[in-house]
Amino acid sequence: MKPQVQSITSFSNPKVKWVSSLKEKRSRDEEKKFFIEGYREIFKAIKGGSDSSVPTLPVRLHSLFISPDCFLGENESKLIGSVTCPIFELPKKIFEKISYRDRPDGLIAVAETPNANYDWDLFPALNLNPVLIIEGVEKPGNLGTILRTAEGAGVGLVLVTDPRIDLFNPNVIRASTGTLFTLPTYISSLSETIVNLRKQNYSIHAVTPEGKSLYSNTDFRKKSAFLFGSEQYGLTPSAKEESDDTLYLPMFGEADSLNLAMSCGIVLYESLRQRNTGS
Amino acid sequence: MKPQVQSITSFSNPKVKWVSSLKEKRSRDEEKKFFIEGYREIFKAIKGGSDSSVPTLPVRLHSLFISPDCFLGENESKLIGSVTCPIFELPKKIFEKISYRDRPDGLIAVAETPNANYDWDLFPALNLNPVLIIEGVEKPGNLGTILRTAEGAGVGLVLVTDPRIDLFNPNVIRASTGTLFTLPTYISSLSETIVNLRKQNYSIHAVTPEGKSLYSNTDFRKKSAFLFGSEQYGLTPSAKEESDDTLYLPMFGEADSLNLAMSCGIVLYESLRQRNTGS
């Protein structure tokens, strides 16, 4: 049944405050909801993943907030027509208040926060290459950029271990351009991740400035998992010890030339190059 | 002669307003000065480049603003002792007002804006490999990240053609972590750039999603120049026509998986891999 569109006309409508509050972790935890802004991001949240053996995060929309005055494209009505959750229409001025963006595009969804813990029993991830492990990531924007790049490089599964951030932080979703919903991305402990990947004959490559082997001299055609540490602290000692090898990227100039997301992208594209060319 | 440190104790001191104003392009243009914040960035501005045949941008400090209460490290006094320009000391509260950062580290320099136009007669750039050309870049932070990564990948010279931003925007400097001052970075027109590089037997590789050749199947061991377009508009038609070839990066998922800086980093590190391994 097509949901009816309800109008919100006042700044003091409690829904306005409620949606805005979901930008904060405390409210997301209390409400078990999160905030998805933007056509592209909501589109991907509805679409989900496609051809992976591991499902993407199960996202169920709770409500949709729209402001047709802000629409930028031509496909908004199709997207709105495809949802079954309650829809609220807001004038531009009120929408701008709940928006997270400088130039909102008139679409904000609230979704039920899914369980993001990886279930190793259900999804052993046998045929995915490569797998990406991100340990202790601190900046939501970095994780988002990593997800976006990982999808481009054909990563099959991303495991976020011991994150210092909330996976459903609006900045993760924004920087990922919605890839959080189309690339299988889960939380797992590092020890469980390593044990399970090793059981399945993955080589676990830790990438760190103190690595011992040149990344591009390493064979990534076999089942590979790449392990990256946090922006500030790098990899934990146990992460380095538990890996099969440690890899470095060559670097001219100062040692801080590459940020975390850039290092990820370079290594992931080298692995794609090797898989594509067979050498 | 060691400069004397002058104290600023009032918010209404005209220097406070003046330094702050340099965050805006109009003031930078009027004053012919720009704003460098942070120990690392000022250190690199003083140090400049080292072993390149092309000099880095000539930076001359005009004045230094310090707030010892904000210092984070142990080398600030050495840096302060090395400058010959006037030095002004501010209490933390006033310094925070002129700072561009959330957590200022107590050091802001004002420098004379150098002429950033590349002089092809003086510096023919004969033995640099690779050269990086960035056309029409729109976001200061992206240019900064590109410079930082380019230095890591051993780029010899960066030419920014037809930029839509000011090279001395504080966000360029910040995202570059000061690499703007240690890696030769200049402005040039695209046509002059292409003519001059071709004279010197550079292959000019345009990188674009509509490229015809796979980037990693291309030989980058010869003298190579990489040409990247703007975030929103990509390469201009003439940039594509004037290049020797057009290269693409393979991409799974959506077509927008890689941002400009990430594409740059991946291609530059592939060129470094080829130069290092000879294949």
From TrEMBL, chains A, B:
It holds the Pfam family MRM3-like_sub_bind. InterPro entries: Alpha/beta_knot_MTases (IPR029028), MRM3-like_sub_bind (IPR053888), Ribosomal_eL30-like_sf (IPR029064), rRNA_Methyltransferase (IPR051259), SpoU_MeTrfase (IPR001537), tRNA_m1G_MTases_N (IPR029026). Keywords: Methyltransferase, Transferase. CDD domains: SpoU-like_RNA-MTase. Residues 13-109 form the MRM3-like substrate binding domain. One of its GO terms (molecular function) is RNA binding. Residues 131-269 form the tRNA/rRNA methyltransferase SpoU type domain. GO terms for biological process: methylation; RNA processing. PANTHER family: RRNA METHYLTRANSFERASE 3, RRNA METHYLTRANSFERASE 3, MITOCHONDRIAL. Belongs to the class IV-like SAM-binding methyltransferase superfamily. RNA methyltransferase TrmH family. This is RNA methyltransferase. It comes from Leptospira ilyithenensis.
